[in-house]
Structures
1.
Amino acid sequence: MVYYIIVTGGVISGLGKGITTASIGKILQFHGYEVTAIKIDPYINFDAGTLRPTEHGEVWVTEDGGEIDQDLGHYERFLDKNIPKSHNITTGQVYYAVIEKERRGEYLGKTVQPIPHITDEIKERIRKVARKEKVDFVLVEIGGTVGDYENILFLEAVRQMKLEGEKVIFVHVTYVPSPSTLGEQKTKPTQHSVKLLREIGIQPDFIIARSEKPLDKIRREKIALFCNVHEEDVISDQDLENIYEVPILFEEQGLSRKILEKLGLEKRECRMQEWKRFVEEVKSFSEPVKIGIVGKYFDIGSCKLSDSYISVIEAIKHAAWANRLKPEIAWIDSKTFEKCPEKLKELSDLDGVIVPGGFGLTGIEGKIRAIKYCREHNIPFLGLCLGMQLAVVEFARNVCNLKDANSVEIDENTPHPVVSFIPEQAKILHESRYGATMRLGAYPARLKRGTLVYRLYGKDIVYERHRHRYEVNPDYVDVLEKGGIVFSGKSLDGLLMEFMELPDHKFFVATQAHPEFKSRPMKPSPLFDGLIKAARR
Ligand code: GLN
């Protein structure tokens, strides 16, 4: 028997529904239940591959090569398990599948309609995950907020699931603001949001109230009365310093016990000691480690958004905590170094620098300057994907004297295409990945014994996730190696350069992959761990 927990949102977006969903999964795991999670994104895009990071946050890459909403990253980090791409359902995928079926004549002359054909497709996709995963619980987070036009069919589908006899628990995550002019928590937006949900035919079992401060008794009573739930089923979810504390906050309010009771499931011993100890310890770390992320996806209107690099940020935190340090992250827009090169000096105030992944032309020269500065000033440096490509470009130009060396992504006519599109690679990708030209998902690399990267991983073959089109050009490997680069990991056929390092540097490591996607609390990524150890003052 599989149980579904459907998580919907109300009032505003950006409430941290992903973290809430992951945390509910975590507390069920504490009780020995097997769980997995699905994210529904109501947009028409087939997946998140083409979304702009400043608009939608980071694109998460799954082990099996899905380009997905960042919430799957929260699920993986909290639940400590790989979540495949089939766990992300978008409107685009659903309609695409239904239209394909219609073209194949599978609907036998029927009028194909949103209800029941689209809703049936949605239900089938959710149930397929349940069948395949053999878990006790499938959590389904529905993106957007109740009242949006675009998620109405998903809400209708999960409403039907309950009617059809599935064991379903509905959790509604809302926002309880405290306007500064009033100084008290206001529940009206929650009441309206639940009213909308009930109009659709869904009565929430639990209301999780996001707020600045803990929900007080009066608001709890009010929400209970107006939203038709028991007072004890209103859960306070106030702002916390550390997202990994959320499962503990829920557990302390008895959420897992209440879920299990409603479903008539046995209560088991709660094993959250290790997680609790970890969260408590983190609070006590006071020695700082300051890591700069030199990126470009920060600007959105007049505010700065760090969501575009969420996995990099989480990976820094995991590694810092594993070394009993307090992470301090500086966001540095690489364009700054193009306008004012004198600002490069400020990199010396950092303990380590990361140049993360990216696409397109803006900010590239600024990143290259930052990498040069780190190389020349012995500042611990970690390059991720584009970060590695640019480290190679910088090295080619300034150490190997290859004037105007570049990646062909940035300059098609460069005299020295040290990072390039490899035709053989394009062919392989074309054949294996249905026409795609991006290397996506986990690929193996063989590490070179005796290198720093080998020491950090402690094994010969490692799998990290990829999302890129360009590679270090094999024609230039010799000259780069002669200059002093050590390619410490290559693809199994030896053709693709997967890891590099500079042996005479305190820590200068880069990878064509995105190791940040595999970092988890209490299990930091080896490369981030290496960076933090080198960065420790
Ligand atoms: N734009 C580069 C490529 O496609 C790097 C991509 C990335 O950093 N993820 O190869």
2.
Amino acid sequence: MASISVEPCTFALFGALGDLALRKLFPALYQLDRADLLHADTRVLALAREAGSVDEHLASIEAHLQEFVPAGQIEAPVLQRFLARLSYLHVDFLKAEDYQALAERVGSDSQLIAYFATPAAVYGGICENLDKAGLSARTRVVLEKPIGHDLESSRRVNDAVAQFFPENRVYRIDHYLGKETVQNLIALRFANSLFETQWNQNSISHVEITVAEKVGIEGRWGYFDKAGQLRDMIQNHLLQLLCLIAMDPPSDLSADSIRDEKVKVLKALAPIKGEGLSTQVVRGQYIAGYSEGKPVPGYLEEDNANAQSDTETFVALRADIRNWRWAGVPFYLRTGKRMPQKLSQIVIHFKETPHYIFAPEQRLQIGNKLIIRLQPDEGISLRVMTKEQGLDKGMQLRSGPLQLNFSDTWRSARIPDAYERLLLEVMRGNQNLFVRKDEIEYAWKWCDQLIAGWKQSGDAPKPYAAGSWGPMSSIALITRDGRSWYGDI
Ligand code: BG6
């Protein structure tokens, strides 16, 4: 039996035949079952409103499991056990009468987890119907992103949910918070005095956060075009990473202590406006180019594209945090589709020593760097300066890594997908890894002013070739400050 105790529940997945549920959520539940982390009495209830028979839908869920769980990890007895937990119910999410059947399936005393993998516009309606069916008092609701597309619309969604569910039963997903290395960032910062004493403007010169994707829009043009890279990635994933790096140490690991500290960072972000809109931010849109040596179309030539769109597929920006810890330490954020590789990493650049005593030509490499790699090859590496070995080398310096590669170090352990951890934490009733209402709202507030500035300027996004690191001006953004993006080739 697993060492973490998890209460039994009915896990109801609204939007069970959608892409997210089929690719990520069912495989994550299967993996939890495989790791013995689901209580024997836990049931999984797939809810959708698509036409088709129950048998067809269950067969489709099973087929997707076979496809999305890595080969070798489908174990026949586990699969059988998992499928025995699974049932399907046809529900029109906005029809109150359809929830009676749901209430019957849940039974009178089971804890219900209601995961909304549906458009946010129906979250309020689902909550109301859960309440009418007498289920709300024993339900935790899980909300997928995007929650709104600006501050006002996100408030509408949050307020609609709050009419029926108090904040301590609302779990807002940002799947980056479930990634192994993001968890490790907290351990690294707060379990090692070595880092924490250096974690400020006295020792750190700047921070880089890159989340690059090799893929383009992959059949999601309609959704993506209304959002763009700022709303899709910066408002949530990159700002969450920034908060975890920049926040003060919380007084304990409780959800609210951590979230209080993150909110302080969001409130301290300097708005980007006026001249900053042209010097501190770059919007880009990919044009045709190459990915893995093969020609690929530009954003405006993708399937179902509107050739007039000025939605950005790339953003680079310099964020400044107005507080004592980070005064004068820029955070450079960069994220885009159709980049040369899939890479998510944070690089903390430490300042040079106060007085330099080595040969002048070696000075450029000086400065320790802490590299936190989220994907691929999860791990943490600290680049330190040492002396080249050998009698004939004199005091020749070299920058080398002190390295902790998670898959090499813990060979036996599979690195779990972010959703596995997040689903488990909901079942355990632990809100640490979920985003509180005010965090979402402060993040929107900061992004909204940026979007308003873009709108006012009317500037089109800068083109960049698919397979490149973004528009040239994103390089100028950082070189203007006498720096460069770490490791770009
Ligand atoms: C999602 C975005 O939140 O994150 C997608 O909507 C993006 O556009 C995805 O592709 C990236 O997640 P990951 O875990 O693959 O880095």
3.
Amino acid sequence: MKLWGGRFTKATDKSVEEFNASIQFDCRMYAEDICGSIAHATMLAKQGIISQEDKDAIVKGLKHIYTQIEAGNFEFSVELEDIHMNVEKRLTDAIGEAGKRLHTGRSRNDQVALDTHMYVRKEIASVAKLIVQLQESIVKAAEKYGDVIMPGYTHLQRAQPVLFSHHMMAYFSMLSRDFIHLQYAWTMADMMPLGAGALAGTTYPLDQEFVAQTLHFGKLYDNSMDAVSDRDYIIAFLEFAAVLMMHLSRLSEEFILWSSSEFKFIELDDSHCTGSSIMPQKKNPDICELVRGKTGRFYGHLMGVLTMMKGIPMAYDKDMQEDKEGVFDAIDNLKFALTIYSAMIDKMSVHKDRMREVLEKDFSNATDMADYLAKKGLPFREAHAVVGKAVHYCIEQGKVLQQLSLEELQGMSPLFAEDIHHYLDIETCVNQRNTYNGTAPSSVQRQCRTGHDTVSKEQDQIQQWHDTVAAVYDLVK
Ligand code: ARG
């Protein structure tokens, strides 16, 4: 019989049972469910709601179930619907009467909320580590290729020369914001819902503060109906994940372009590429394409939960069971993507000479030529027009600006002097852009230094998260 079967006279239809169940995916929250139940039972005994002996039997039984699941010796049953009832039923089968007292003062509504909060917190701690690892790979590459200059683009047209390291550090900055986003998701998840019961609180003298402390939660919910029906922390996590994937997708697009024969700016390591079953010459950046492609489902997961939540009345509704698969899928794919990207950046080769060759043959220094004239007193708009004409002239002559003689240049503006060729040098173009966040080596070195500081602050945060999480899971040891 079902744990809730008392008022029923018929068995559940088999396909209803399967459709209704969540054990197929929520089984991954077994550690959270068991730790949560240990905390709950401990509190029940402390409050005199169950006996000390019952509590001891429950805790021992739960720890045994934990070892069985860890060892792969636990068969989850669809009939028992979800992780909560699978564990509770097994506990009761093992220890009898005492097991039946575990669910006192608790509903699956606050139980599932508790488990999911704990699970999300745990995964935030491990995803955070991988973000930082990727950031470290990026700074390392920025430092390693500190003298590489590449064309910077707008509209995917060559615009101005930039340091390759500057380009890479842009992604570092994006990931720093992702980390802040993740801290927000942690704050949202760090709230303890147990004690809300089904929706209204319970008639037992629970000590919710004690449960929160035992499970190392920062806060209690103020309102029990909100506690069982809040999924903002899941939305916060999925928002974080969607934005992070958007960032990785942009990087993917660049890696794909840069490793094409047309660009040839980088080469990804063989270990990160795949071949073609028909074209023997091919080396494809599949991983980058997959990361770019998978970004779609991350947006889907976020939209899915937002849409699922938008029309449901207070408090818990079964719709909310749909909150988990997207998060689980996002976590799994995020971990893959972050791990692989870090190694990919560590191992890729950067073709400095090829980037240089492209720059030498183009007009990325045109802005610098206009700035040269403007600095000599010509209004910038007029300088812009003079250089525009120079570019046009060069295209007709099959030259680049750097190749124009002083006579040719002075024919265009008397302000041009000997030093113009120095100003048009790719190095000069880069070195002169030494504004606070510009591409000059001094600025990029400053970015790298700040980057190391950011990483070390993030690591402190991660340590704190890991300590919290580890303390929770110690309950089952
Ligand atoms: N499996 C459910 C979920 O994931 C657990 C809560 C079910 N509560 C209920 N009263 N049906 O949301």
4.
Amino acid sequence: MRIPFIAGNWKMYKTIAEAKAFAKEFKALYHDTDVKTAIFAPFTQLQSLVSEFDGSGIAVGAQNVHFEKEGAFTGELSVQMLEEIKVDYCLVGHSERRQYFGETDETVNLKLKALLCSKILPVLCVGENLEEREEGKAKLLVGAQVKAAFDGIDSKDAEKVTVAYEPVWAIGTGKTATPEQANDMCACIRETLTELYDEETADRIVIQYGGSVKPENATEIMNMEEIDGALVGGASLEPLKFIEIVNF
Ligand code: 13P
């Protein structure tokens, strides 16, 4: 049985003061549910959020990490540094990192491996851009991203990874993939995972959809057979909107 997992990705939004105000308001609205809930926040807010959400059932995640243990990597943070402040999750390979910060399939794979040696659970983002979809290459491209990301990772570790399917053309555009398109790609990702591992392993891996998820479309998306969760950008910045999605 896969447990639904709804996560907010704040990207580069909110100060520490704003994050604390969100946490207070969101905690008051949140009732322990069977839905796993997490907020992926910028680095400076992580420590406050971990302490604000302590004991609430709401998890906290980072948006990026370096794969090396330590070294001359100005501006980067290691897995150990994130473990020290007790974050639960870390995003890997978000399309904005692939697009603007040189993240490649190879660094995504190294980051997954580094996180899997720790207690921090990775959320791997994959997704095609508009041109790739229009050329009919979406499934091939996403399949290749999944294969490259899981290269050299055994089935026991693979089960700890959540996969987030985020079509680039649906991110921040207000343009959502239809529930059928999203479901179809999530099914395809699970088929790739079955090829890489086996049916049992693939069945245990949680697959989220992300791209303009909002209170108005969350139920329909979450009701799709192959979609186990959502990775929410814009709508996770407002407690009232995000709680509606969590309670889909
Ligand atoms: P939006 O929900 O703002 O489209 O962002 C999706 C996303 O990129 C989450 O990681």
